[in-house]
Specification:
The protein is α/β, with parallel strands linked by helices. The chain folds into two domains: about 40 residues; about 100 residues, Rhodanese-like domain (Oxidized Rhodanese, domain 1, 3-Layer(aba) Sandwich). Helix content is about 40%, strand content about 20%. The chain is built from six helices and seven strands. It has a five-stranded parallel sheet with strand order 3-7-6-4-5. Helix 5 links the parallel strand 6 and strand 7. The termini are far apart.
């Protein structure tokens, strides 16, 4: 049995006959190209990467990163990760405080358990930061894995 032939109009003056299996091939190529192009677009606008304490330690040693603790000053008194700066998520000056960070350099953020830092990460991407790392599980996970912290004076 012979396959039916369908007619596709390319221009008002030009007609070409195309078999269905060839049309399916073109459709598949179009779908793959569309998915590829739209997925690449999201990466260029900025990305949030969840990292484990081990990965975060490596990042701090290998890259010039900005380490930000988004907990309150009171929470920070219980201990903080060395070389971190405190920008309180709940502070009314939070948005102006993050403007003091370099948007072209990677930022690692952490909080107590990961909820605030996840919200903060979204805010940083919206503000134009290129790469944001979020410590999965926050300082709680950092301590659970027996990593060092500094104590406030």
């Amino acid at each position: 049995m012979e396959r039916p032939i369908y007619t596709i109009k390319y221009h008002s003056f030009l007609y070409k006959k195309v078999k269905p299996h060839i049309m399916n091939r073109y459709l598949l190529i179009f779908i793959i190209a569309s998915v590829f192009l739209t997925s690449c677009k999201d990466k260029a606008d900025g990305e949030i990467i969840l990292v484990t304490p081990e990965e975060m330690q490596s990042l701090m040693e290998l890259e010039e990163v900005q380490l930000v603790d988004v907990r309150t000053a009171k929470e920070r008194e219980d201990g903080f990760i060395k070389n971190s700066q405190n920008i309180d998520w709940y502070s009314p000056t939070f948005e102006s405080d993050i403007e003091n960070l370099d948007k072209t350099k990677p930022v690692i953020i952490y909080c107590r358990s990961g909820k605030r830092s996840a919200e903060c990460a979204e805010k940083l991407i919206e503000a134009g930061f290129v790469k944001v790392y979020d410590l999965e599980g926050g300082i709680t996970q950092w301590l659970y894995e027996d990593r060092a912290i500094e104590l406030a004076n």
